[in-house]
Amino acid sequence: MSKKVLILVNHDVVIYNFRKELVERLLLDGHEVVISSPYGERIDDLVAMGCEYIEATIERHGINPLREIKLLDYYKKIMKDIKPDVVLTYTIKPNIYGGIAAKKYGVPYVANITGLGTAVEKNGIMQQITVALYKLAFSKIQRVFFQNTENMNFFQKNNIVVDKHELLPGSGVNLNHFQVLEYPSEDTIEFVFISRIMKEKGIDQYIETAKYITAKYPNTKFHVCGFCEEKYEEQLNELHNEGVLTYHGMVRDVRKILKKTHCTIHPTYYPEGLSNVLLESSASGRPIITTDRSGCREVVDHKITGYIVKQKNTKDLIKQVEAFIKLNYEEKKKMGLAGREKVEREFDRKIVIEAYTNELSKIT
What we know:
CATH architecture of the largest domain: 3-Layer(aba) Sandwich
Radius of gyration: 21 Å
InterPro entries: Glyco_trans_1, Glyco_trans_4-like_N
CATH class of the largest domain: Alpha Beta
Keywords: Transferase
CATH superfamily of the largest domain: Glycogen Phosphorylase B
Order of helices and strands: EHEHEHEHEHHEHEEHEHEHEHEEHHH
Domain Glycosyl transferase family: 186-341
Structural class: alpha/beta
Protein name: Galacturonosyltransferase
GO molecular function: glycosyltransferase activity
């Protein structure tokens, strides 16, 4: 039976880049899909696919109580007006305020915990407030999907709807879209950072590593791709002009970058769900170097598909980058192919799509 599915997200990329295949499946199954998100260039693509769109205003990192109440009232108004049969939510604010609104109108809803966020991961008053809001929002929830066991354990420890939990392999990766790319020649050895550019994503450690490695190994190159959420743009432009790294800004199709790079470095210590950057790089046959934290360590087998480094530790990052450089060409290539085999076994996006369609089939 067809349903009206309302999807609440805080950014158009959250839905298009990582859930487009789910949207396609919902539309193919005859469901009506309505997306509420701040406007971004990917919204036009989603509308072209057949989705309806309702613009939202969300401050992703803001904690102004009046604006939070305004967002909750906005979600209540949407649900009252369009009367969805089910609500799917992603990221913290849509999960909490969308959940409260859905509960008010008795609409079945499914949330996806894409990461705890800095405020929740650290002990303190913000963690206590957020836990209380989650308990309020999720008290009638149908299902809570998690992207890593550490996040799920946090919810269990805090007794947040423990009987509704299910673990997914992150957002999964589209193995048809991200196919194994030909491994580039070793005239140069090139590394890439692909992420929102902010302190907690490890950009400082990456920059320091780039300075050290390029000075010691003249045949190496470092790339940075992503949107600057913090004040790094001037510094990156200076380093670009000095030849320390190449700053690309936002890249619409990361495969174009992965095609010419040998290894992806993701030195994050941000509390994320499960890194899509690592999944996409591994699926493309690229070795990965990332931190020993939940949401990252699940994707890499140390010294087999890449390397695991200590968080916030530039010295250790440099050590593992040098270990990668010293591998011969075939060893580097083999490491990337092992990563592809791992994501094929464990992180196929079809697993995620089936979990969602299964939940929708339970709604009468």
